Automatic annotation (TrEMBL):
Residues 9-159 form the Transposase IS200-like domain. One of its GO terms (molecular function) is sequence-specific DNA binding. This is Transposase. NCBIfam families: REP_Tyr_transpos. It comes from Histidinibacterium aquaticum. It comes from the Bacteria. GO terms for biological process: DNA transposition.
């Protein structure tokens, strides 16, 4: 197993892709209120700026700017993932599965308790604290310059179009594009 060391740059602006363990589900958009609450609570504890954000059914993209004296985005993502997972489990628990009916997760995705790993995809074996909703890691890219920033924020905003979910970015409800339009930073 390779060892990955993430850069630690205080005040960095970083692009992220965070994905569910099982692609093709609609968990994130069906429970967008729980995800928004998890982000809000995490930002209250550990502030960060949201430059761009889009939530698709099974993954999300975001561009964050960290505080000048802080480089710890991993703890923030861990808190968001944990809060969302606990909230979804509380809402959808139906005898040991996470949202099988309402969130359309595969039947074989159990809530992992006491080290039971049956039904999880190889390589996704969670620790005792995980439920197997999220992929263990996330992808990050430190923004290098103004052009790189514009490209990654735009990538967030147009991603629903790329995936064929809408024809125009402003038609997708789970995007920071609506804030940007209100604030005059994006012309529809």
């Amino acid at each position: 197993m390779s060892i990955y060391i993430r850069p630690r740059v205080p005040g960095a602006t970083v692009f992220f892709t965070v994905t569910l363990a099982h692609r093709g589900t609609t968990l994130l958009t069906e429970h967008i209120d729980l995800l928004r609450d998890a982000v809000r609570k995490t930002r209250a504890e550990r502030p960060f700026g949201v430059d761009g954000w889009v939530v698709l059914p099974d993954h999300l993209h975001a561009v964050w700017t960290l505080p000048d004296d802080d480089a710890d985005f991993s703890t923030r993502w861990g808190a968001i993932k944990a809060r969302f997972t606990m909230a979804v489990r509380a809402r959808c628990d139906d005898g040991g599965t996470v949202g099988r009916a309402s969130a359309r997760l595969p039947d074989e995705l159990p809530v992992v308790r006491s080290g039971r790993y049956a039904g999880l995809k190889p390589g996704l074996r969670p620790s005792k604290r995980e439920t197997g909703i999220w992929q263990r890691r996330f992808w990050e890219h430190h923004i290098r310059n103004a052009e790189d920033y514009r490209n990654h924020v735009r990538y967030c905003l147009v991603n629903p179009v790329k995936h064929g979910l809408v024809e125009r970015p402003e038609e997708w409800p789970c995007s920071s594009i609506h804030r940007d339009i209100r604030e005059g930073r994006f012309a529809a």
